[in-house]
Amino acid sequence: MGFRSLWWILAAAAAAAPASAATTIHLCGDSTMAKGGGGASGKPTEGWGEYLKYSFGSDYVVRNAAIGGRSARSYTREGRFQAVADIVKPGDWVVIEFGHNDGGSLSTDNGRTDCPGDGAQTCQTTYNGVAETVLTYPAYYKNAANLFLGKGAKVILNSPTPNNICESGTCVDDVSRFDTYAKQAAIDLASPNVYHVPHKQYAVQVMKNLGPTTVTANYPNDHTHTGPFMANVMAGSFVLGLKCGTSALGKAVKNSTESLASASYGACIK
Ligand SMILES: *[C@@H]1O[C@H](CO)[C@@H](O)[C@H](O)[C@H]1NC(C)=O
Predict the structure, then answer these.
(1) pLDDT tens digit string along 95-147?
(2) How many domains does one find in the chain?
(3) Which residue has the CA at smallest separation from atom 7 of ligand 1?
(4) pTM value?
């Protein structure tokens, strides 16, 4: 090979490198994760997905596809998981976190409530004049995960963050049926490319460490939607949970466990 053709090969490889290098982390969730944090009126809010990029190097890109007001069910029905699957690249990551809009009763169907249960139960409803078979929250998680696995992506199933657990003036653990569903869905999927982050537990831990004054001051409008400071805290609690797990994405986190511990996030939860 002549020197000139070798030069061209090296130059072409260098030019192609940036396009293929970045791994995308796609985020699917509700207002607590979404850009703007769902606070269209009132004081500024932000979703935690907007702060995730600060914990990764330039070899990762965070694409926040979370939208306010969505549940695992409505995100599915509106084709939003499918829209993410349409652009996901093999080797990308997809983080799924719902729960704030998944409760309620189907007797007055708001289009978001899931069928009660943790398995293959189904419910029949009519929403907006259209008959719909409603699945359980874990079933929506598993269907979405299988969609992304089929595209060669890796999937992280999160339990949802709680509302402000400190609003009474004391930070007390709340208990929700959504606390365990994501973990169970990950276990059921039994795939080496599916992981669970107990975001709920890590969020509770940091809120207790920060205390009621700081926490409540950073829920500016209500007990669900975070101000920017608390959104960053929620991102950090996810990052610690990720680091404490076994995924390659956890190993890519820039922040050390020590720095997270000294910033009130606490230690790995066993
Ligand atoms: C992680 O490190 C980055 C870069 O130093 C910093 O901007 C970010 O706030 C850190 N995140 C947490 C949760 O401490």
Answers:
(1) 999 999 999 999 999 999 999 999 999 999 999 999 999 999 999 999 999 99
(2) 1
(3) 54
(4) 0.92
Residue 240's domain spans which residues? 21-265
In a domain, 139, yes or no: yes
pLDDT digits (tens, 9 = 90+) for 176-196: 999 999 999 999 999 999 999
Residue 131 lies in a domain: yes
Q: How many H helices and E strands in the chain?
A: 10, 7
Q: Does residue 55 line the site of ligand 1, with CB under 6 A?
A: yes
| Ligand 1 atom 13: residue of nearest CA | 236
Q: 251: domain CATH number? A: 3.40.50.1110
Active site annotation includes 114: no
Domain assignment present for 25 = yes
Active site residue 59: no
- Residue 153 is encoded by which pair of tokens? 């992506």
State the CB neighbour count (10 A cutoff) for residue 3. 6
Our answer on whether the CB atom of 241 is closer than 6 Å to any ligand 1 atom is no
Out of 26, 196, 199, 225, pick the active-site residue: 225
Residue 58 CA to residue 129 CA, distance in Å, equals: 47
Q: Is the pLDDT higher at 15 or at 227?
A: 227
> Tell me, what DSSP letter sits at residue 249?
H
Is 1 inside any structural domain? no
